[in-house]
Amino acid sequence: MGKYGNSFYVQLERSIFDEKYQSLTAHAKWLYTVLTELEHRFTSVSGDDFFFRTNELLAKDCGMSERQIIRDKKILADVGLIKTWKMHWVNKEGRKSEKHVSAFRIPRRTD
Questions:
Q1: Does some domain include residue 84?
Q2: Which of 49-53, 86-90, 106-110 has the highest mean pLDDT?
Q3: Strand 101-105 relative to strand 83-87: parallel, antiparallel, unpaired?
């Protein structure tokens, strides 16, 4: 089941269609859509409010190149649609991963 109680659709912020974001490329908007879907899948209302993904997996999720993913993540972060940072994930034994992953949070408007 999705984060907001459904598994049949993804809830996007309507703001993505506002004039403020009109200049975003189709690739950036698609990345935002995929990130929102991943947030619904990998977070919960009462649990973690962020998720992580490697650029390689995210590129596969989106059907885009890693180079395009890196470029569009920066664009989305710069306009405030996502928050992202580098991190290591920790396995069940408490050991950090050797590889960095990107953590993501999708801020919600409160107005």
A1: yes
A2: 49-53
A3: antiparallel
| CA atoms of 107 and 18, how far apart (whole Å) | 16
In a domain, 4, yes or no: no
CATH of the domain at 52: 1.10.10
Per residue in 69-101, pLDDT tens? Answer: 999 999 999 999 999 999 887 777 888 877 788
How many independent structural domains does the chain possess? 1
- What is each CA distance from 31 to 17, 21, 53, in whole angstroms? 14, 14, 13
Q: In Å, how far from its chain's centre is CA 99?
A: 19
Q: In this structure, is residue 92 part of a structural domain?
A: yes
CB-CB neighbours of 38 under 10 Å: 19
Assess if residue 100 is contained within a domain: yes
